[in-house]
Specification:
- With 205 residues, the chain is mainly α.
- The protein contains seven helices and no strands.
- Helix 1 packs antiparallel against helix 5 and helix 1 runs antiparallel to helix 7.
- The protein is elongated.
- Keywords: Membrane, Transmembrane, Transmembrane helix, Transport.
């Protein structure tokens, strides 16, 4: 399996189940959350919050700036905190920011939130490669890195379908626009996922 000799197979399978699945699910929801803004923008947010000009592009740039700034601190944090604590904490942080996005009333509020969202999400990509590199040999790492990267792309691919369903079924419920429900539902799904992963990934302790 995966080109591993029999004596190593059980250990590698266990690492795949706990470590790789944890990283992939986290990255999937990372990209799912990241795609929320574009889907919300074309689902009524633009008109409701009175976006104009290139404000969406500016917001995306602000997110990228936060993402870049957060790379080094997040990796340094991994030398002080256990990954099974640090990663779920970051997901809870960006989940809270996603929830707050559902309550904004202007593009400036989204801009501020997206900057801090970039800081929080910066932990996922580089931090996960640090974790994978710590658990897998050089021979084993290539395939796992590919699977990990594909999980993020899957989040983007399925995000549109998932969020279209949310928008169409919840638009107007409790007086909230469908695009606001995109952020609310994404928050709860991410938090519930990380709660389950937190309790099952004791191998990462």
């Amino acid at each position: 399996m995966w080109g591993i000799k029999d004596p190593e197979r059980n250990l590698v399978v266990k690492i795949d189940f706990f470590i790789l699945s944890f990283c992939c699910v986290t990255y999937f929801f990372n990209y799912l959350d990241r795609s929320n803004l574009s889907n919300a923008y074309v689902s009524g947010m633009k008109e409701e919050l009175a976006f104009h000009g290139n404000q969406l592009n500016v917001i995306n740039t602000v997110f990228t700036v936060g993402y870049i700034i957060g790379q080094v601190p997040s990796n340094l944090a991994l030398t002080y905190f256990r990954p099974r604590i640090f990663f779920p904490a970051m997901v809870l942080f960006w989940g809270a920011l996603t929830m707050v996005t559902a309550a904004v009333h202007n593009p400036q509020g989204i801009m501020a939130i997206r900057f801090f969202l970039g800081l929080a999400e910066a932990s996922t990509f580089s931090g996960t490669h640090y974790i994978l590199g710590s658990w897998y040999t050089e021979r084993e790492l290539g395939k796992r890195s590919g699977i990990f990267t594909a999980s993020g792309l899957a989040g983007t691919m399925f995000g549109g379908f998932i969020q279209t369903g949310i928008h169409s079924s919840l638009d107007g419920v409790r007086g909230l626009s469908g695009w606001r429900w995109l952020f609310i539902v994404s928050t709860f799904v991410s938090i519930l996922d990380q709660e389950s992963m937190f309790t099952s990934t004791r191998l990462m302790a």
